[in-house]
Amino acid sequence: MATLAELASSRTKLDEAAIDHLLRLTASWSLLSDLSFSDMLLMAKVDEPSDRGCGDFVVLGQMRPNNRSTLLNDDLVGTTQELDAWPLVRLAFESGTRVVGELKIDKIEGVVPVWCVPVGFDGKIVAVLVRLQGPLRGPASLYEQAYLSIFERLCSMVADATFPYREDDVAGPGMPRVGDGILLLDERGEVEFATPNATNALHRLGIYASVEGHTLRVMGLRVRVVERSLEFGIPAMEEIDRGQDVAILFHCVPLFDHGIVTGVVVLVRDVSDLRQLNRLVLSKEAAVREVHHRVKNNLQTISSLLRLQARRSSEVETRTALQEAERRVRSIAVVHEVLSREPGEEVVFDEIVRSLVLLVEDTVLALHPVEIVVNGELGTLPTDLATPLAVALAELLTNAVEHAFVDFGGATNDHVGVVTLNLYQEDGNAVAEVRDNGRGLGDDFSLEVPTSLGLSIVRDLVRTQLHGSIEMNSVPYSKGGGTFVRVVVPTTARL
């Protein structure tokens, strides 16, 4: 489905500034829909004239109320509406004033009460906001009357382009909604009206007396955003805490009349449970981070012990085995080091790759110059995949650097050996390719019967723990020679 900006650019004559104004309107108009208990349509004139020689309307946006059932089951965004079917919309465009009446709308029985509110911008009418009012459940209650009064004041602001605000949106995900609680303040900051939910929120802050007719400051509660909205006429949001258990969010929406602030609508939401949950999550993340940090430290301690033991060994074979074990432990520690910074069920594997390359360059002593080049990335991977894959890649890179250029005439001080690591994702799999320009594999080489412990570890990790595949072949001399290793492991859930 095309976005509002795409529809307005392709179907209307609206310029970029007007389209941006309409985008800000639709970002906040759920407030209008909830206050009026009504469906909303945003209509603009179509650029191309119809066969009758007069322009039709295109629906740029549609909003359904959260506190009342919708009248419109169909999505009308992007549809062209005939001029004759919406005479009140046409009148609102031509007169530049609010038009109230009734219309017969397809697929809706009877006539529907309609408000057509011109959307002003830069001295022009750029669109019309259409309110489709659903049936009321008997006479409007005191609270419904207050909501509709606020809605009417906001409609006047839509017509004179003071709503939406340039500074900020006043509705959307994470922001208080009409049903959470409303305080209506006059131009002096005195409370004219408070819903039961808003009153309950004030009770949690220690205000039990009636606030109507008084300012919040007089009642012992200073909400700085109220003062800011009254003085500067801009929307603002503030969270007020009372100890560790109470947190109330205040979102101020200033009301204008001919450019003068005449009051403030304060949307009030009790976010105590949400903040407590956030604190628990942060506490859990801190604990997990600390666990990974301690595991990393323990692994580094083991690595140091292995390195010390290797230095004390007089047998070359034993010393080599201990050094290889120490390097494998360090490669596992690299994963936990990254997780200690960003704990979770997933990890950015590219950070691990950078650390692995530095680890291999730091620990491997080659008798010839070798350069490791990394191309591509694997992005974010599950943590249970990252650790064995990191160990496997460390082994493959180390094996290439240590053995690919031994007794190989192509790798001299004048000819640098190159080990390339290519990383990418393909069809739900993580793919790692290691290629060197060294001597290649022997004629009797078989991955099923590897001659080194490192390749045995890689083979078993990839096939058994990662449920992937690995292939290892020599590259023909005509194609550059060397060895090519391809590891493919699924990134989805593994048994």
What is the fold's blueprint, element by element?
Elements: H1 4-11, H2 16-28, H3 30-36, E1 38-49, E2 55-63, E3 80-81, H4 87-95, E4 99-104, E5 111-121, E6 124-133, H5 142-159, E7 182-186, E8 191-194, H6 196-204, H7 224-232, E9 236-242, E10 246-257, E11 260-270, H8 272-312, H9 316-341, E12 346-348, H10 349-363, E13 370-376, E14 380-382, H11 383-403, E15 417-426, E16 429-436, H12 453-465, E17 469-474, E18 483-490
Parallel strand pairs: 13-15
Antiparallel strand pairs: 1-2, 1-6, 2-3, 4-5, 5-6, 7-8, 7-11, 9-10, 10-11, 12-14, 15-16, 16-18, 17-18
Helix pairs in contact: 1-2, 8-9, 9-10, 9-11, 10-11, 11-12
CATH topology annotation of the largest domain: Beta-Lactamase
Helix content: 25-40%
Rounded to an integer in angstroms, the radius of gyration calculated over CA atoms is: 34 Å
**Strand fraction:** 25-35%
Structural class comes to alpha+beta
Instruction: Report the CATH C-level class of the largest domain.
Output: Alpha Beta
Which residues sit in consecutive blocks of at least 5 with pLDDT less than 50? none
- In the CATH hierarchy, the architecture of the largest domain is 2-Layer Sandwich
- Average of pLDDT: 84
Based on the model shown, name its key terms:
alpha+beta; 6-stranded antiparallel β-sheet; Beta-Lactamase; 38% helix; 495 residues; 12 helices; 18 strands
